[in-house]
Amino acid sequence: AATFGFGLLLAAGSASALTIGFSQVGSEGDWRPAFSKDMKDEAAKRNIDLKYSDAQGKEENQLKAVRSFIAQKVDAIIIAPVVVTGWDAVLKEAKAAKIPVFLADRDVDSDPSLFVTRISADFNLEGRLAGAWLAQASKGKCDVVELQGTVGSAPALQRKKGFESVTALFPDIKIVKSQSGDFTTAGGKEVAESFIKATNGFKGICAVYAHNDNMQLGAIQAMKEAGLKPGKDVLLVSVDGVPDMFRLLAAGEANASVELKSDIGKNIYDVVEAYLKGKTDFPKWVLIPSDLHTQADAAAELAKRGLK
Ligand code: AHR
Asked: What predicted TM-score, i.e. pTM, was given to this entire model?
């Protein structure tokens, strides 16, 4: 019905008047609010009526939001799922109501026929890029502490798996401690403090691998408070490429970050709009590329973004 209605609107030459429900994870870290802003700005540009719902990190809030989008008979639903599990029932309800669902950023472990496609980066590749960088920087010998993202979330699961798939090739690279800091600066700081304590000031620790930059920012604070020099005494590699991380890279206080693009609203709405106009042959995954940045290119990357 939504496809037909949207087709009629276009045929009549009217401006797009789509109503889209977007269930967002929350606002942890710096990357997520940048992504939310991009989704809102891009919706406004396209005259999309975006019903935005912030789940504050709780899947139960997302399930409620999606059910409310269904009740409002929106044209499409976009979900950035907090965790991978628990989605089957609500996705089936959307399907029964003939409302197409698109996954943005994070993944689910449901039957793929319950959603149209997922538009996102390859989290496993991000982990592999981080692992390959570390293998090279440490010459294949390193005791690593790992700050994991939200337990059960696609990026935490995949960034761990990808990183380990590379470090497993190097017998002298070992993850000696690993715990979730829930993708927040405060969480990263708290876990890093406990690791610093447990290892007597990061004795023998060669690197911190954080599943996002904000946890690394927290770890950097903890290291400084413990009298350590981040980026020098310990190698630091993380994911997101947020502005503060580029600044730390440029200042030599961190070593590498894999950038996760946050300006992907255009990619997501292009897919949703094309689907509602009748295109159905989408791959199950529309890939957004990620790339690794280091101290060598951080200043240039800041300049490229008009940042200091
Ligand atoms: O799902 C992507 C991850 O979620 C980002 O890397 C992290 O910052 C966010 O919380």
From this structure: 0.94
Q: Which residue's alpha carbon is at the smallest distance from atom 9 of ligand 1?
A: 32
> What type of residue is 52?
Y
How does 45-58 read in b/e, with b if 16+ C-beta sit within 10 Å?
ebebebbebbbebe
Render pLDDT for 192-240 as a digit per residue (tens, 0 to 9).
999 999 999 999 999 999 999 999 999 999 999 999 999 999 999 999 9
Distance of CA 212 from the midpoint of ligand 1 (Å): 6
Q: Is the CB of 260 under 6 A from ligand 1?
A: yes
Structure tokens at 65: 């939001």
Segment 68-82 shows an average pLDDT of 98
279/157 Cα distance (integer angstroms): 32
Give, for ligand 1, the residue of 184, 240, 264 to mutate: max count of ligand atoms closer than 8 Å to Cβ. 240
Of the candidates 214, 151, 217, 212, the one whose C-alpha atom is nearest the C-alpha of residue 179 is 151
Whole-number Å distance between alpha carbons of 122 and 170: 23
Structure tokens at 131: 């692992």
Cα gap 32→212, rounded to integer Å: 11
Verify whether ligand 1 is closer than 6 Å to residue 29 (CB atom): yes
Tell me what ipTM this predicted complex has.
Answer: 0.99
> What is the distance in A from the centroid of ligand 1 to the CA of 32?
6
Q: Confirm or reject: Cβ of 28 under 6 Å from ligand 1.
A: yes
261 in contact with ligand 1, CB cutoff 6 A: no
Tell me what percent of the residues of the chain surpass a pLDDT of 90: 94
